[in-house]
Design goal:
Helix content is 28%, strand content 40%. It is α+β, with helices and mostly antiparallel strands. The strands form 2 sheets. Strands 1, 4, 5, 6, 7, 8, 9, 10, 11 and 12 form a 10-stranded mixed β-sheet that branches. A hairpin with a 3-residue loop joins β11 and β12.
């Protein structure tokens, strides 16, 4: 199955520095940043639950080819920073969450607009775009067996973004329901078949043992 770029909106954004620049007579931070994703937190996706496991970001962050952008609302033309140009930094904080920071360029009107919106509290959430390299399906407390998607390893980190709206993209989840159901079936069915085969062998062994007596 091809890898899909997924987006989750669950984090925060804030001023990330005590240093100040003067913009039109107003003091502004020289950098902004926030939490793009958290670990060990179960989130309801509408028909299944999802959790990002500790360590899921480690390989993606350590990748020497990492070229992650900081975008506003994931819009490619609204770029705020980039790891390759050292105007954006992404890292795993001590709690295991994915954190980011970008440097503000107040000669760029977009930076002024986004920065002021963050300072006013109009923009207070963050998000990230990614692919998944390793996952499993487990029991969900809400939806039952095989409906908790555990993200074990992130494949590629595409961007981090201050965003207008919080929470997971339920519409995206619904649009990808067919793909996710296939993914779930590919993971669950072999395990179920193995359990059935082991159960059948146990019954055969029990039958043979009973016949001996």
């Amino acid at each position: 199955m091809k890898q899909n770029i997924e987006i989750r909106k669950i984090g925060t954004v804030r001023a990330a520095s005590e240093s100040r620049a003067i913009v039109d007579g107003e003091e502004m931070p020289d950098s902004f940043g926030g939490i793009a994703a958290v670990v060990n937190t179960v989130t309801d996706m509408g028909w299944y639950e999802e959790i990002i496991m500790p360590g899921a970001f480690d390989d993606a962050i350590a990748d020497p080819e990492l070229d992650c952008r900081c975008l506003f609302n994931h819009e490619e033309e609204l770029i705020l920073g980039r790891t390759k140009s050292k105007t954006c930094e992404v890292f795993v904080n001590p709690q295991g969450a994915l954190e980011y920071k970008y440097s503000a360029d107040y000669k760029n009107p977009l930076h002024v607009q986004v920065g002021r919106s963050i300072m006013r509290g109009d923009i207070s959430q963050s998000s990230f775009a990614f692919t998944i390299a390793e996952y499993s399906w487990a029991k969900s407390e809400k939806y039952g067996d095989g409906y908790l998607r555990k993200i074990i390893k992130i494949g590629k980190l595409y961007d981090v973004s201050p965003v207008t709206y919080p929470a997971y993209e339920e519409t995206s989840s619904e649009a990808r329901k067919s793909d996710l159901m296939q993914e779930r079936s590919a993971f669950i069915e072999p395990a179920e078949n193995l359990q059935h085969e082991e159960h059948r062998r146990d019954l055969d062994l029990l039958t043979i043992t009973t016949k001996k007596f």
